[in-house]
Write a structure and sequence with these properties.
- The protein is built from 5 helices and 5 strands.
- With 143 residues, it is α+β, with helices and mostly antiparallel strands.
- Strand 1 and strand 2 form a beta hairpin.
- Bound molecules: tetrahydrodeoxyuridine.
- Tetrahydrodeoxyuridine binds next to helix 2.
Length: 143
């Protein structure tokens, strides 16, 4: 299903809005994510840091976990906005893996810095090539 530029901009705006709810007292780097779900709803979330730094949860993973917990599926696109960056910041490696668990390889991924019009439009497969272990989802190693 095609997503037009107006919808993409709306999704980016939601990600920008979500970044305002970021809890990032350590990095001072607020990030927001917005997922367009199969039912047309948009689920948003922000990065949540922790004083034990490794426990930080990125905006993308927060959004995926929230959406799944709300019973959402068939994700159509994800937008990410790092509202203090002056360049488009792409999802970290861990988030790419987690997004790939729930999204099809051709699902669009959009990301920007503060300027949502200066965004990269790509796909899950391009961000996460050589995907592996999908067979585990099918239970092929079951006895
Ligand atoms: N962060 C995200 O939430 N998403 C990204 O795509 C990049 C990094 C967060 C994690 C941490 O709270 C802060 O940005 C600095 O790395």
């Amino acid at each position: 299903m095609n997503i037009d530029q107006k919808e993409i901009k709306n999704l980016m705006n939601k990600a920008l809005e979500a970044s305002k709810l970021s809890y990032s007292p350590y990095s001072h780097f607020p990030v927001g994510a917005a997922i367009l779900c199969g039912d047309g709803e948009i689920v948003t979330a922000a990065n949540i840091e922790n004083r034990s730094f490794g426990l930080t949860i990125c905006a993308e993973r927060s959004a995926i976990v929230k959406a799944i917990s709300l019973g959402k599926k068939d994700f159509r696109a994800i937008a990410i906005c790092c509202s203090r960056a002056d360049y488009p910041v792409s999802p970290c490696g861990a988030c790419r893996q987690v997004i790939s668990e729930f999204a099809s390889p051709d699902m669009p991924v959009y990301f920007s810095g503060a300027d949502i019009d200066n965004r990269i439009e790509t796909t899950v497969a391009k961000l996460f090539p050589f995907n592996a272990l999908d067979e585990l989802k099918e239970g092929v190693y079951k006895e």
